[in-house]
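[[Local backbone shapes]]
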Amino acid sequence: MGQYDLAPQAQQWLNTVLIWIGFGTVAGVLAKLIVPGNRPQGAIPTILVGLVGSVIGLQVLSLLAREVWHVEIPNAISPLGLIAAVGASFLLVLGCRSGGILSELWELRKMQKEQKEADS
């Protein structure tokens, strides 16, 4: 593998990115499972909602830990961090489904597909 080895800092960065993508995916999937209704959503929006929800939820968790509870900031990749990430992702999914931007984009995409099928 000699010529394809990454520098240690690049390996650490890549590991961190992959961990966060996995963590965000789990949070997004769990949030979608909790939200009632059967509205299909692709893999990319699920991952993006999970990543954004993870960032928001974990920022709120660290703010509460530091400013309200006056305790050490918990590890982000932990059960408590997952609960915070899923909670924020849940709220994002609810917002998207109740008339948010992703909901409008989904409807536009559906209309475009129907138009293509009608033209064929």
